[in-house]
Amino acid sequence: MNSRISLAMIVKDEARLLADCLEAVKDEVDEIIIVDTGSTDQTATIARDYTDLVYSFTWKGNFSAARNFALQQATGDWILALDADEVIQGEPGSLRSLINNAGDKEAFLLPLHNPIANSTEEFNTFFVLRLFKHTDRYQYTGKIHEQVSIPDPEKVALAQNPILKHKPLPLRIQHQKRNRNLRSLLQAFQNDPYNPFLHYYLGVEWLMLGKESYALPFLQEAYLRLSDENLLFRAPALKYLIVCLRTSGKSDEALSLCLEASLNYPTFTDLFYLGGLLFEEKEEYLMALKWFKHAIQCGTPQALFSHLAGSDSFLAHYHLGFCYEKLGRTIEAWQAYKAALDSNPRYPYPLYPLFLILLREKGPADCYQYLDIKGYLDNPLLCLTAANLFYLANHVEEAFRCLDDHKDLFPNDERYCLNLNKYCIYSGRFDKGLELSEQISQNSAKFSSAQTLSIIALILLGDFPKAKSLAITLWQTPLTRGEAHILLKAIRLINNETIVPIPPKIHEQETIPLLKEFYKDYLHYQESQGYLKSGNPLANSWGEALETLLKSSEEGSDFLLVTYTHKLETLQQRFSEIFGMGWRADEH
Amino acid sequence: MNTKQTVSLCMIVKNERDCLPASLKSVQSFVDEMIVIDTGSDDGTPDIALAWGARVIPFVWTEDFAAARNFALRNASSDWILVLDADEVFQVVDPESFYRLLYNSQVEGYFLTIKNRLGPTLGESDDQVVRLFRNKLEYQFEGAIHEQVAPAILRQNGGKGLASANLTVLHFGYLRNQQIAKNKFARNSKIIEKELLKNPQNPFLLYCLGLEYYQQNSIADGLEYMTKALVTMTGQEGYFEDVLLNVALGYLRLNDTLRLLSFTSKVLIMYPNHADFLFLRGTAYFCGKNYQKASLDLERCLEIGTSKLVTLEQAKSLLKTTLSALQDPPQSIDFKLMYNHTNSKERQEQTAMKHHVLIASPVKQKANILSEFLESLSQLKITDAEVYFVFLDDHNEHRLLSQFAQDHPNVRIYPGDLQGDYHCDESTHHWREELIWKVADYKDRFLKLALDEGFDYLFLVDSDLWLNPNTLVHLLSLNKDIVSEVFWTRWNPDLIPLPQVWLRDQYMLYSSERNEALGEEEAALRTQNFIQMLSRPGTYKVGGLGACTLISRHALERGVSFQEIYNLGLSGEDRHFCIRAAALGLELYADTHYPPFHIYRESELETLQEYKKSPPSPVKLSQSSAHQQIDPILGKITLAMLIRNESERHIERVLQQGREYIDQAVILDDASDDDTVHLCQEILKGIPLILHSNEKPMFHNEVSLRKQLWELALSTNPEWIVILDADEMFEENAPRQLRELLKHSHDVDYYSFRLYDLWTETHYRDDSHWQAHRWYRPFILRNVPGFQAKWQETPQHCGRFPKNIIELRGANSPLRVKHLGWIRPQDRLAKYYRYKQLDPQGAFGNLEQYESILDPAPNLKPWDNS
């Protein structure tokens, strides 16, 4: 006999998310029950594309009531409960295979991935009870963060598949939701002040709203009162409590908690990771090393522990590297950063310090070679990052090579074109730069940036008429008037033409940041051409023009002064490296 | 002269329980600190080392002797280093000549003579090794095995800086029991084989490995390595001769006469005047029945007379045998008999670690009294001793002595041959002058016998004593030259019992300056004091003694004697003995732990039966005396504790437990700024409490606080002082047991316990940095009158008690102490920060241990509550 699965959802104004959710789950369940609690958008319409069983339920400020109403409508043997902002992921049929092999189990905890940042694959894993036998015995309780209670823990099993992926909401909506939750929670709390789950949820909500001092007593209570039978809540409560103590400036209390709890939960990786972070912040790097290493040694903990992906691998390695550097153990730091990159290439941050070590220890050419050989440059994200790092470190040639040698990685990638364009121009490859600019279509968001680069290239080539005409085109787009204004003025200055006064549509404050950027890029160019040889005279003129423009404002002058000082120091350092310390004494 | 030159003993040990005491004892008086590096004993060696006052530091064995030695050096703080192994004994010299060596500014290190007792069939050999050298960073040991410090010293001093010292170390390593030897063999051979892998042709390593096999009695294997070593050698090596000798000894021990002959002949071409090889070839010829040639070689050997292998006597003896064989050739020669010539010291060697004791008594005694005496002799415990008996049977009418000789091995009875007799009746014994000197003569014969036969000790006992079974073992353990066990005699039934020891002259029981005129009252008071002192268990220096006296070989060699000193008017041979001994520079001691029973008159035999059932403690004895001036020891317990801001911590449960076993508390508050003081007063309500609060905290200077607490505790005239920290408590069922323990501790002055670092309420920490529970440390001390406290003067980790309490009598208790101070994680953090602040370099502790405080996932073991 095949068991039937009913999806039971309660929704309100979820038009934006509902389709994705239902699309992913529709083939996994036998019926879909949608209970709408008063949407004012297209939610009900979208729901009807997937099911006829859409019910309207008058909201009474009680989630459990709505959920239990949905259960009443369901006819399946099992209930799958989802929220609209969750998407089910996994092998087709994995839900069905779970219940077919359920044995005497009557409920399943499913992994819920809650992302911190999508791009770097940092997410927290929680387990939630969302799949359970459809019987009168299992009802929702709790006005908010309602739960189905399964009295016999023997009946509950942990599933690894499928995964529920939580979609992050825009911050504004998150806050709205949190405030709404908070109100309901506080109300519930008044009626049920000893409920540890309410303490937990209240703590989390306050913490997420940035109110640590409000969150702290709730989290402390939750951790104290929840027993190991509720490890699903106790474990995250513990983590949130440590985080909360840390952000409240009570790092010693946080550390004490790590020390104590890690003895009770010796396999709870995240405690060691958090301990490491706390020691790191206290500049106890030796201690931090021990704790991060132990986190790595622990590996991924049992599912019941709320786990931050990477705290046993790339995150821990990254922090290990930092601590090693602080202790002056460069080689070990290098290895740690490398391990971090290797275990998660989508997390690019370890590349920054690794790059700095390589540059310092081996110089730009070997640094490039190392990154290339290790395959980091074959990863588009790391390749772009590395190129940018080279550029910022005044090694425009290597920045150019990063991108130019790996063009196959970036088919039709405008971001790539633009970056390469920049590196071409500031490494003196004006023609190639101009060529790349043309590949960026007029409709692209990057078009104006490409145009700006083209104009600078033309100035450096001495083609002032063409530069001027492009700049005038740029002027016609309101968003790029600042750039256009600077470029036009500079062209006049270089050609010793009279300066037109600042048009009223341009505020000086707006042009200064742009000027600074241009000037910094100019410096990269000059420095990549070498300190001692006088470069392209046109470039010198361009630089002088930018300096003149900067000097016309106080902020610009200050900026220049700082830049000069910095440059002088760098020069002195170079000289002393090349000629020894003696030359300075000769000057005096 | 310059400031005092100090010496640190550095020793590496692993499972050396048996031999360690002898080694430490031999060197104790010459060194200022003893550093014992334990590389993983599981037989209680560290406890023994601690008991001897050594600093014990665990070290993870890395199969590298030099590494371990250098680790020891790092921990040494004196000007000089003396390196010994646990199976070595430092031969006593006079301190002056020892210290003279230390003040020779020309010398950086001294060669000492190591006398190796190689084993049953290999005799003895000497090595010169640098074992005493200045404590300098540059002087480090080199070489994973057979490690040496000499190369480093020579390197630092342009090839100079070393000298020879007239100091000898006896190495008994190869005589110890088989198991230890085997382990050592396994350990050494593993190291050597490892080195050989790197360096397969290294002759020195091959030679060492060969020696290891020899010491295992694997002669054939050893010989193979010796031969291998030999073929790779140039002949310039310093140990070339040793290899040659060992090859020859290998053949000898394998009974391979032919090879021995041809090999020694070859060697003798190179070294024609080598006494050892002449002796060995002589032996080979002898075995081959070529007595003519044997006698020629042996004669040459004796002419040269510089054999390392045998003494001249041994060579002579073999020559004698050879010459007589020449006259009258024997039918067959048992090769094994040959060894007896090279092994006349075998008996001593086999039991070298045991004391040889001659128990001697001149006997003229009634049968019923003598049988008690003899029975007590046969019941003497004789651990670590090999006991021989000698009696002078002075015209006794019974056959008890011969009976005793039949029942026991090693008994000799000499007949008394001199005339003279004395008369005794129920009231007193009447001694005649000539009788006294007859007995003196008997005793002197015993002295000579013991000296001639090489005994380590002579135990002279009168035959009217009943000895406690522990007497001999205990006296031996005292390591004194002359010591008597004190017994008490009512010289007349109406008098109080008096001891057979005195302070000066005929029988003066009080001390006074020569020109000090004492009133009768004062003299009586001082006599009381002396008697009171003797009635406490202890070992005391006295001026006169007798009748139950252990005399060391050193004293015998010095020339002690009972002979009359013609210009001394005191009567009794004991006085002449004692005064001569003092004149010879020997000290006399009286010990009061195991008083013998003096069967002074036959009527006392009944009392003896009572006495045997429960030998009274010395204290009870003195109570029964007429003086009655000593307070009974009831085991009154005073708790002394240092506190500072404890209210959030463990003070409550600690003091609650204290209430169960203490009679009084002394608390020193280091300027708490919370309500700790009030809390203590509350918890200890009803118990006498002396609580002193300092105005300013002094925790930066722990030693001054410790001293203050000590003085405070002493000022209350306590009996037993328990010093606990505010986070330490005994295990759950301890209080009752403690009371019992202390009530019945007459011969113990301090008790040591293991301290468990609890990490949670249920688990304690156990890893390389957390081993407090593996050692015993003192927590409870008797208030010993006259004890002069000396402290380890370091600001931190100075110890809770004065450092010299180890001079008192200690014992270990199996009860455990919980250290609660690490349980609260915030305390762990705080202590970590505090150590880092107070001792950032780890000068007073161990930096790695500080850093291990906050380890993730420390190794915890469950605290067994049963």
Features:
A: 588 residues; alpha/beta; ten-stranded mixed sheet; 59% helix; globular; disordered C terminus; B: 866 residues; Serine Threonine Protein Phosphatase 5, Tetratricopeptide repeat; Spore Coat Polysaccharide Biosynthesis Protein SpsA, Chain A; 4 domains
Description:
The complex is a heterodimer of chains A (about 600) and B (about 850). By secondary structure, chain A is of the alpha/beta class. In chain A, about 60% of the residues lie in helices and about 10% in strands. Chain A is built from 25 helices and twelve strands. Chain A has helices spanning about 15-25, 45-50, 65-75, 95-100, 170-190, 195-210, 210-225, 230-245, 250-265, 270-280, 285-300, 315-325, 330-345, 350-375, 380-390, 395-405, 415-425, 430-440, 445-460, 465-475, 480-495, 510-530, 535-550, 555-580, 580-585, and strands at about 5-10, 30-35, 55, 80, 85-90, 105-115, 120-135, 140, 145-150, 155-160, 165, 305-310. In chain A, strands 1, 2, 3, 4, 5, 6, 7, 10, 11 and 12 form a ten-stranded mixed beta sheet that branches. Chain A has a two-stranded antiparallel sheet with strand order 8-9. In chain A, strand 2, helix 2 and strand 3 (about 55) form a beta-alpha-beta unit. In chain A, helix 1 (about 15-25) packs parallel to helix 2 (about 45-50), helix 6 runs parallel beside helix 8 (about 230-245) and helix 10 runs antiparallel to helix 11. Helix content of chain B is about 40%, strand content about 20%. In chain B, the strands form seven sheets. An eight-stranded mixed beta sheet of chain B has the order 3-2-1-4-7-6-8-5, with helices on both faces. In chain B, strands 11-10-9-14-20-16-21-19 form an eight-stranded mixed beta sheet, sandwiched between helices. Residues about 120-125, about 175-180, about 330-350 and about 615-635 of chain B have low confidence and may be disordered. The chains are: A alpha/beta (about 600), B alpha/beta (about 850). Chains A and B meet through helix 9, helix 10 and helix 11 of A and helix 29 of B.
